[in-house]
């Protein structure tokens, strides 16, 4: 009996092309969102591609984000002192998932459960890292997310 290879989340969703479509359309929609538009007013045109590369690496794709931008410590630094609120975090997750639906990305329960798990986990860390006094550990490893991740309790440093 042949061995079945389980694809990474990155492979399952369609790779960098699908993530680029997702982040490009998502940030187009952000501009018209009253909760999120002010948060991303400073965003440059390259932002969607950077986020696509970050998500791709986290979800099991190539290490492009780490190689070109400095990995997780760089992403953490992007959130320092941004003073993000839960309302903004919730809207970011909801709009990203709405955009995934709009683009007809995979909606099977296993994939969406894993994606929502990462978006909840990562967005909550972004809020924590955006508060006064937060810092970026230069050795913070890049998160890796798969089909059933559990990271354990958050213990702040």
Automatic annotation (TrEMBL):
Keyword Transport listed: yes
Keyword Heme among record annotations: yes
Tree of life domain: Bacteria
Keywords in alphabetical order: Heme, Iron, Metal-binding, Transport
Family note: Belongs to the truncated hemoglobin family. Group II subfamily.
Protein name: Globin
Native source species: Pseudaquabacterium terrae
Taxonomy of the source species: Bacteria, Pseudomonadati, Pseudomonadota, Betaproteobacteria, Burkholderiales
């Amino acid at each position: 009996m042949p061995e079945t290879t389980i694809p990474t989340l990155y492979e399952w969703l369609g790779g960098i092309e699908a993530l680029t479509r997702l982040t490009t359309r998502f940030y187009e929609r952000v501009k018209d969102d009253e909760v999120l538009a002010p948060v991303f007013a400073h965003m440059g045109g390259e932002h969607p591609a950077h986020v696509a590369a970050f998500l791709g690496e986290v979800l099991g794709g190539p290490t492009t984000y780490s190689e070109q931008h400095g990995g997780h410590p760089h992403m953490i630094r992007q959130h320092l002192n941004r003073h993000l609120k839960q309302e903004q975090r919730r809207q970011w997750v909801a709009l990203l998932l709405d955009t995934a639906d709009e683009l007809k990305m995979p909606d099977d329960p296993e994939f969406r459960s894993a994606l929502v798990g990462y978006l909840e986990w990562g967005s909550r860390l972004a809020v924590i890292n955006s508060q006064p006094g937060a810092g970026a550990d230069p050795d913070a490893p890049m998160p890796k997310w798969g089909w059933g991740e559990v990271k354990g309790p958050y213990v702040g440093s």
